[in-house]
Amino acid sequence: MVAPRAMWKGFLKLGSVTCAIKLAGATSEAERVHLRILNRKTREPVKAAYMDESTGKPVEREDQIKGYEVQKNEYLLIEPEEIARLKIESEHTLEIESFVEKAQVDPVYLEKPYYVYPADKPSTDAFAVIREAMRRTKKAGLASIVLSQRERHVLVEPEGNGMLMTILHSPREIVPAQKVFGDLKDRKIDPDMTEIATMIIDKKVTRFDPSKFEDQYENALLELIKAKREGKQPPKAAPRPKENVVNLADVLKKSLEKEGIASPSSGNKQGAKRKKSA
Length: 278
Known about the structure:
The chain has 278 residues and is an alpha+beta fold. It is 27% helix and 25% strand.
């Protein structure tokens, strides 16, 4: 994979220490399978266009302007020059304003990662000092930055010889968990089934290794493309999983057998109880 180009250049600032930095995307979709939209009749690619809602006709770029809807069908027009004049310090400076424990940041706030690295040789020392100070204190920095004409709050932390900057969702973008989980009530759980589930989890404990991640959907898509190019029948669809668990205890025990784990015996349980009471 080709190293990504820098997509932002500015300054990293901590107190009075400033150094020139660049940002590069930490993720890429270049290796994914991309399907284009075609006209079924002509087999020619189609392209998206902005259409006037009243006339249904395409609107050329020079005739497009942004607008803020103040009330139904009434818009306040905003010229590109007016937006460009909204210069704020974070447009060119990534200033670390405060520090937090990384564990305090709820993963639901993490959006998109970027790599941060020195923009030139003179900035290398100052960059390294800030990075190593964060590493030594085991802290992550909170800062703001302007990307795509929008100010975003970010988390900055050491990453190898560079740093990792992760865009954070605004609280307004987060759906409160209570809205989704509010109807879930506490249930009385059978301790025997919990013990079996725990044994299955312990058997499957491993180290985090993203190199083993596999996109089965994309693999199936590639197989479909290969079959169609070779004039063969497309692969058969995978069977749908069963939707209902008839007997949870039986299913858990079968899972134990599949993992080669002996089912906990009642004798062991009684021994464990005597051990606790002693």
